[in-house]
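The following record pairs a protein chain with its ligand, nicotinamide-adenine-dinucleotide.
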Amino acid sequence: MTALEQNKKKLGSYLSRFEKAGVMNRIDGQDRDGSAGKFENISPVDKSVICKVARGDASDIDAAAQAAAKAFATWRDMPAVQRREILIKVAEQIEARAEEIALCECWDTGQTMRFMSKAALRGAENFRYFADQVVQARDGQHLKSPTLMNVTTRVPIGPVGVITPWNTPFMLSTWKIAPALAAGCTVVHKPAEASPLTARLLVEIAEEAGLPPGVLNTVNGFGDEAGKALTEHPAIKAIAFVGESRTGSIITKQGADTLKRMHLELGGKNPVIVFDDADLERALDAVIFMIYSINGERCTSSSRLLVQDTIRKEFEARLVERVNKIKVGHPLDPETEIGPLVTEEHYNKVTSYFDIADQDGATIAAGGIKIGNEGYFVRPTLFTDANNQMRIAREEIFGPVLTSIPFSTEEEALNIANDTPYGLTGYVWTNDLTRALRFTDRLEAGMIWVNSENVRHLPTPFGGVKASGIGRDGGDWSFEFYMEQKNIAFATGQHKITQLGT
Ligand code: NAD
């Protein structure tokens, strides 16, 4: 049996429960149908119906928010070491079920086993990392004034809403949910409608690990129905959102009436800048990895290549050669490097840029073609002869599609890099140290890597500037979002109190 056949067989055994029972909502430790009925979950690999999914609406969100509110005091007041233990157990159970999570994720989203097996483990790492900080999360400072001893403490903000997208949905959900739980918040999670399977596995795992009922609730459904209700619910104190910039703007408006605290992780059109003094072998590997891994459905992907004109011809030629060799195929085949795009809608969006590139006057140097009719497969694509005013350089395509733009000077590279509404990541390839320092100082992005692809280190701040987001994840930044600072001032003596009416 080939590895692909083995994976298909294993997937069959993991999917049969979903085929029988569908994906239910999980509210207060109970399975619940969706009040708005059900919707179909389709696999992008062969367009087959995987299962039916509960379609939640405002009444389900209300039930989940009430459950989260009821469970809040129990979870908040549970001794920190006990909460820590539960979160460590969640991490252990994720590790134990990593294969199941990865296979389901691949079938649900079209992501490849090559990358998703690691994404499941990254999810466990997120729980472990934040579990280890549970005990200190509430620590504060003491700040002495002449008459008062001020003591600060951090307290969890309350029940929070987590709204996640369909790209690497398991890993991204843990990224938000782990720090929220570690802070002592309870959670209502609204996963993306296109990828509900692994959110269901996560809530099951968490409850099996000992999370009390109502601490994590999952309500499936559509953004403008369940998602909207979550952002508007008065019991929900904050929304951690990952998704498109346009949606981020909509949910900010939706949350205004209830003064929601918002953390927004949004889209990007990230530049990778390759100077002619760089290690071009490594730069080439990183350029390819950062746009064609994870099907290019990655917020941090470098979708604009800015290449110095002195090396442009050779660099692009080598790029074309490599891109044409990338293996597109069944996501469960360990050899596959790119799987199908997540949904028909997204496939239509990504492939529409093949015509747009033509109309813009760019050259399709590699790819630009759909593959077969069975699933949503495309060839990895490279556009050359582009400039930064073209739509292919300005709009987030969110697929395995790279736009190459030449520059001649450092100043020009900087102007092109910053000439975008977005500012999530930037990647700079140069062996000139002072240039790297100068350039990164002026590059408008929340995260920049020099001579490296994106390598995430959990204690560092993750997030974007401009239309790429508001707020930071990682380390203590996550706790700042999910917790409130509180200052308590104790009089240290009999200081003079101004007397009125004497
Ligand atoms: P999306 O904005 O369409 O949907 C994201 C989530 O929001 C889904 O769960 C959806 O149901 C929900 N939603 C939609 N409308 C809503 C509304 N009115 N109220 C409440 N919820 C609503 O995004 P997507 O297409 O699922 O994901 C891809 C996008 O996510 C890309 O733009 C990508 O760059 C971005 N992303 C950003 C990061 C980051 O860290 N910055 C990480 C991953 C993905």
